[in-house]
Amino acid sequence: MTRDAWNAFERLRDRFRADCARWNSALPGLRDLQDQLRARLGYDDYEIETPVVYNRDLDALGPGDRVAWILVADNPGKKEQLEANRRYLVGQAGKLAARFFREELALEFRREVLVINKTPIHTPKTAELRKLLALDGDGSLRAIFEESQESMARLALDLARTLDAPIWISGLGELSPRGVFSAWSRAFGAGLEAEPGLARRTFVFRHFSMNQFAVQLKGERKPGEALGAALERIGAAGRLRAFGA
């Protein structure tokens, strides 16, 4: 990347790291709420270590690296929040994503795909964010949850501009007005509306988890269609459905 792009990326990365630290400090009771949720749901195979997760993979990027995609996942799960990891998409869905990018697109996932989330707040599964919010007695968690989504939407747009990279959004269902990521969707959609050129480089697909994306690609790819053309067509249709752009 150019020197200007690298300097801009460093500023975005550092701001994101600072935001995660600020959100964590603003919610001193979050770990307890997450632990309550973990116990209620019967997850006895892990402990809460990082309530708000910054992606340390961003620290491994250097000025000589090329980012081919900005990939937007949901939120950190069990493995992502471990102190030993504190990285996004390192569970089973991450393995499926890494294999696809490596085998089908000839890209090194951890070096050429920059992964961010729609929120850095941890729950074992994305759908359980609603259950976590239900434990929020004074509304402070919901306020930070929505703020984090809006900030992460802006981060995705800023990174795409800075690094001149297309955006791959993983997951469609929770982007609806009633979805758990509605705040992210509104903020991101506003950015696309203001910048049609960026909208044309944004693609929305099903999740990698449980092979949902693989099933989508197999089912919607036309006979004889090149992979790049299929991804562009399917992802653009997903974008139109999610954002009307």
How would you describe the overall organization of this protein?
This protein has 245 residues and is of the alpha/beta class. The protein has a single domain (3-243), classed as Uracil-DNA Glycosylase, subunit E (3-Layer(aba) Sandwich), CATH 3.40.470. The chain is 50% helix and 7% strand. The protein is built from ten helices and four strands. The chain has a four-stranded parallel sheet with strand order 2-1-3-4. α1 packs antiparallel against α6 and α6 runs parallel beside α7.
Question: What is the structure about, briefly put?
Answer:
By secondary structure, the protein is an alpha/beta fold.
Based on the coordinates given, report the CATH architecture.
Answer: 3-Layer(aba) Sandwich
CATH class: Alpha Beta
Radius of gyration, rounded? 17 Å
Number of domains: 1
Mean pLDDT: 97
Q: What are the low-pLDDT stretches, counting only 5+ consecutive residues below 50? A: none
What can be said about the biggest beta sheet? 4 strands, parallel
Assembly level: single chain
Helix content: 40-55%
The secondary-structure class comes to: alpha/beta
CATH topology term: Uracil-DNA Glycosylase, subunit E
Number of strands: 4
Question: If strands are numbered along the chain, what order do they take across the biggest sheet?
Answer: 2-1-3-4
The secondary-structure element order is: HHEHHEHHEHHEHH
Coarse morphology:
globular
Distance between the termini: 29 Å
Q: How many individual helices? A: 10
